[in-house]
Write a structure and sequence with these properties.
alpha/beta, Rossmann fold, Arc Repressor Mutant, subunit A, four-stranded parallel sheet, 16 helices
Length: about 375
């Protein structure tokens, strides 16, 4: 995991905490987020089986060399390159490329097309949208009855795609260029789940469908799936790099945000647009106080706040005039129970975190009001 304490004080994502589930290119995504001010929590939701050690890929490669397919569908650039590199390591590289030169080769998008051409091959066709649905439509329009179609899988079985082809009469061969497995150390994933369900995250990013499916599966195994889904529906923004990645979440009724271009940079830019729009800003006794994720900005200065203080701020900010009933405030404070001193304790910690002795609480009609000016105490005491 990244160090959650190293929170930059500037940038569009300052104050927000973002979870990263990626196994591959996680460092790149984390660095992009941190440069824009975010606190990053990383827990790879899966691990990738090394290509050279994958007996399933070796068997599939030998089968395709021995029995030529009519069509090969390449789905990811890194997967296609890895497939050829692995075949080279097994002494089958030239045989594989020779076989691919004699078949109809389809590329899922521009990046895959580039990887194909880098190997001296030429694709028959490629959609500009990187959509597997367009690839499927083309194949069905051509007619697949009796044809043998090999699909380079990108970590997931693509059941809808494969089933549609088989229903139309095709023989489909899966090429598992890299396979996803559960992480060897499940501890970071569990901590990420705990942070999500307790609203310790403001956003959760997904760069592959298997990562999303793996996290949902782990949540279900721990009995936390309803809590995770509730968090993703209301408080934790689920951000996916593209529509294929979003499928496992959408199957659970979760709406996601996705960039127009399916890349890490646009994904980060999307978060820079979405998360600040969720910030709540209110004037309090002449000061501008803005709740930004898991920090508070007072008159433009970002102040990290402990969980109890943030819970108190959020509970107060949901009510007009920042007035909230005592019982509701106690429920909002983590671990407060029915302790009547919990509010005073949380307020003291909040005052310390914000660095101002003027932060006070005022009882108003058996509720609480937050103020940043001692004069506000007398002003609202009899309201």
């Amino acid at each position: 995991m990244y160090d959650e304490q190293q929170r930059p004080a500037a940038g569009p994502l300052a104050g927000f905490t973002v979870g990263v589930t990626a196994a591959r290119r996680a460092d790149e995504l984390g660095a992009l987020l941190q440069r824009r001010g975010a606190c990053v929590v990383h827990a790879p939701a899966l691990r990738i089986v090394p290509l050279a050690d994958d007996s399933e890929l070796l068997a599939a490669t030998k089968e395709l060399i021995d029995q030529a397919p009519d069509v090969v569908v390449a789905t990811t650039a890194i997967g296609f390159r890895g497939w050829v590199e692995a075949a080279d390591g097994w002494g089958l590289g030239e045989d594989l490329l020779g076989r691919l030169r004699g078949v109809e080769l389809l590329a899922r998008g521009p990046k895959v097309k580039g990887a194909i051409r880098a190997q001296g091959l030429t694709e028959e066709w490629s959609p500009s949208s990187e959509s597997m649905a367009e690839v499927l439509d083309r194949l069905l329009d051509e007619g697949v009855d009796g044809r043998r179609i090999a699909i380079q899988l990108h970590g997931e079985p693509l059941p809808g795609f494969v089933e549609s082809l088989r229903a139309a009469g095709a023989e489909v061969v899966g090429v598992p260029v890299y396979r996803w497995m559960p992480p060897e150390d499940i501890g970071p994933v569990d901590r990420l789940l705990d942070a999500a369900v307790t609203r310790g995250l403001d956003a959760l990013t997904f760069t592959s469908a298997p990562a999303a499916a793996s996290l949902l599966s782990r949540a279900e195994h721990r009995g936390l799936l309803p809590e995770l889904l509730a968090a993703l529906q209301h408080d934790v923004l689920p951000a996916c790099v593209g529509p294929v990645t979003a499928l496992p979440l959408q199957a659970r009724g979760i709406d996601t945000v996705q960039p127009e271009r399916f890349r890490l940079g646009p994904l980060v830019q999307l978060l820079c647009q979405e998360l600040p729009g969720r910030a709540r800003a209110l004037p309090i006794a002449g000061h501008r106080v803005e709740i930004r994720g898991h920090a508070v900005m007072v008159d433009g200065a970002l102040r990290p706040v402990p969980p109890a203080g943030m819970s108190l701020m959020r509970a107060l900010s949901r009510r007009p005039g920042w007035v909230v009933a005592r019982a509701e405030l106690l429920r909002a404070l983590p671990g407060a129970g029915r302790d009547e001193h919990a509010v005073e304790t949380a307020m003291a910690r909040l005052r310390t975190a914000l660095g101002t002795p003027k932060l006070i609480q005022t009882v108003v009609k058996r509720g609480y009001r937050l103020a940043l000016d001692p004069a506000a105490d007398s002003k609202y005491a009899d309201a």
